[in-house]
Amino acid sequence: MKYYVIGDEDTVLGFALVGLGGQAVHSPQEAKNAWDKALEDRENAVIVITESAANMIRETVDRYLFSESFPLVVEIPDPGKTSSRDLRSLVNEAIGVSI
Questions:
Q1: What angle do helix axes 58-67 and 28-40 make, rounded to 10 degrees?
Q2: How far apart are CA 40 and CA 79, in angstroms?
Q3: Among 10-19, 32-41, 51-60, 88-97, where is mean pLDDT lowest?
Q4: Domains in the chain: how many in total?
């Protein structure tokens, strides 16, 4: 089971420091390519995507979220942006289980 991270350079680098692969994106086309690459690898069980990266391809992400159950997609806030919820509550909401 693998994780794949899509987002800005700082987020991808941060997750890479703990051994997770991913791709930094700067444009909608890069975000779409990273999304497709993440889905191609059947070993990816969780796709972590920053809010800004997801917004670049919002229609694609939402269509996937409402029609597929694997891999799990977890949307996280961008670095430096505040969220009314912490990361743990976002993950709990995404997987439906309290951790």
A1: 30
A2: 27
A3: 88-97
A4: 1
Task: Identify which of 63, 66, 68 has the alpha carbon closest to the alpha carbon of residue 44.
Answer: 68
Residue span of the structural domain in which 62 resides? 2-95
Bridge-partner residues for 75, per DSSP?
49
For residue 38, give the CATH number of its domain: 3.40.50.10580
What pLDDT does residue 35 have?
A: 97
- Give the number of other CB atoms < 10 A from CB of residue 53: 28
Predicted confidence (pLDDT) at residue 84 exceeds the cutoff of 70: no
Q: What is the pTM of this model?
A: 0.81
CB 86 within 8 A of CB 61: no
Tokens of 66: 């409402």
- Tokens 């997609």, residue located: 73
